[in-house]
Write a structure and sequence with these properties.
single chain, 2 domains, Thrombin, subunit H, 445 residues, globular, alpha+beta, 7 helices, 6-stranded antiparallel barrel, 6-stranded antiparallel beta barrel, Pdz3 Domain
Length: 445
């Protein structure tokens, strides 16, 4: 219902201080969650429809001047020229006929379509593969997309309306729904409306402590569930489709676009969102919690935020980050994220240059305490027990290399609390490997 979010942490301890994660940020656009609340005196349609200004009339063109063909002085000369031209035309026609016969072009049946004698426009059927893909996605996954209406007030925020509307996607036919945390946070009651108009009361099964995700349960069986894709396999420029309830009114609206970028980081209302998919598929308030799908109708992301005062800049949480939560819910377990207890910075070429690092990818464990005096490594945490030190560079978890496509928190999210993972480190230019047994991530690390 509300757009307020808890801050997703890089992995751990205290609310994120972005100054420890990257150089001082440049001024940025405002970001807004794609949830929806009805403004006062809301009208479902604009008061005016705006048309583009009429184009100025094209300047009149001057008539083409015809040049007469001059006759030669000798009639015999003209006859010879015409004879030669006629002979050349006959020979060329024979060659063309032979070529067409050899290719079989003359064997095709003659069209029975009447000629366009009236000079009117004739519409020809055109098949566009991309359009067909969008149609198929809408048909397959549309019934799995729901509208979520919430009632209540977020106790952590002020001046919020009493009702909010967002979207969600059914991931299991027995009434399991994935949506955004900010869609349901603080709600006292919520209802879920299916595509056919059937409405069910819903309950919040659990809230994610790492990302803007939540799971809702309704008492229903035999529902249409969407298939899940692989967000790690997404490529920039790939076709994607968004389905949701923009403005809370237009349920099951389908829009399409491409993957504009991967691994985006944004700040929204004091919170940080990381590892996001950027897309130009139209996402509006009310789309929050709805699915982003690939051309096979598989869910690859959950739409979560849009850029204010922009066109075609929306963001989705990769579905691979949500899969562990869905598995926990289906197993009847509490939603939990793994935790190691460090603050770190993602290494890129600029950070490597500024700090004279030996690598251009990985995760650099912060060297100093933050502005609140919190140490880079939390005392008593799994990282502390494993002997990780400030200034260490984590280069891999198991066999997965830490880089822009596989950031540390996203890779850790694929494990569960209690798992033991192997971390590859660089310390003082020397390679090392440590074993870390993951703990449960606190609600407010």
């Amino acid at each position: 219902m509300t757009d307020r979010r808890d801050v997703p942490q890089d992995d751990d301890t205290q609310p994120i201080d972005s100054s420890y994660f990257s150089p001082a940020p440049e001024p940025r656009n405002e970001w807004t969650s794609a949830s929806w609340t009805a403004p006062p005196n809301h009208s479902p349609t604009p008061e005016y429809w705006f048309e583009p200004p009429a184009r100025p009339a094209a300047p009149p063109t001057e008539p083409v001047q015809a040049r007469p063909i001059r006759e030669g002085r000798s009639g015999a000369g003209i006859g010879a020229i015409l004879a030669a031209a006629l002979l050349s035309a006959v020979l060329a026609s024979a060659g063309t006929f032979a070529a067409l016969t050899a290719t079989g072009a003359l064997d095709k049946p003659t069209s029975t379509t009447p000629s366009n004698a009236s000079n009117t426009s004739v519409k020809q059927p055109v098949t566009i593969d991309e359009s067909s893909a969008v149609v198929d996605v809408a048909a397959k996954s549309g019934p799995a997309v729901v509208r979520i209406v919430t009632e209540g007030v977020d106790p952590n925020a002020t001046d919020l309306p009493e009702q909010g509307i967002g979207s969600g996607v059914i991931f299991n036919p027995n009434g399991w729904i994935l949506t955004n945390r900010h869609v349901v946070a603080g709600s006292n009651t919520l209802s879920v409306e299916l595509k056919d108009g059937t409405t069910y009361p819903g309950t919040i099964y659990g809230i994610d402590t790492l990302t803007d995700l939540a799971i809702v349960k309704i008492d229903a069986n035999g529902l249409t569930a969407a298939g899940l894709g692989d967000s790690d396999a997404l490529r920039v420029g790939q076709l994607v489709v968004a389905i949701g309830s923009p403005l809370g009114t237009f349920s099951n609206t389908v829009t399409s676009g491409i993957v504009s970028a991967k691994g985006r980081k944004i700040e929204t209302e004091g919170s940080s969102l990381r590892n996001l998919i950027q897309t130009d598929a139209a996402i509006n308030p009310g789309n929050s919690g709805g699915p982003l799908l690939d051309s096979s109708a598989a869910v690859v992301g959950i739409n979560t935020a849009i850029a204010q005062n922009s066109t075609g800049i929306g963001f989705s949480i990769p579905i691979n980050l949500a899969k562990p939560l869905m598995e926990q819910a289906l197993a009847g377990r509490q939603l939990q994220r793994p935790y190691i207890g460090i603050r770190y910075e993602d290494i890129d070429a600029q950070l490597a240059k500024d700090d004279n690092l030996p690598v251009k990818e990985g995760a650099l464990v912060s060297r100093e305490a933050d502005q609140n005096g919190n140490a880079p490594i939390t005392a008593g945490s799994p990282a502390d027990a494993a002997g990780i030190q400030a200034g260490d560079i984590i280069t891999a978890i198991g066999k997965t290399k830490i880089d822009a496509e596989h950031p540390l928190d996203a890779v850790l999210a694929q494990s569960s609390p209690g798992d033991t993972v192997e971390l590859s480190l660089l310390r003082g230019g020397q390679s090392a490997t440590v074993s870390v047994t993951l703990a449960v991530r606190p609600s407010n690390p």
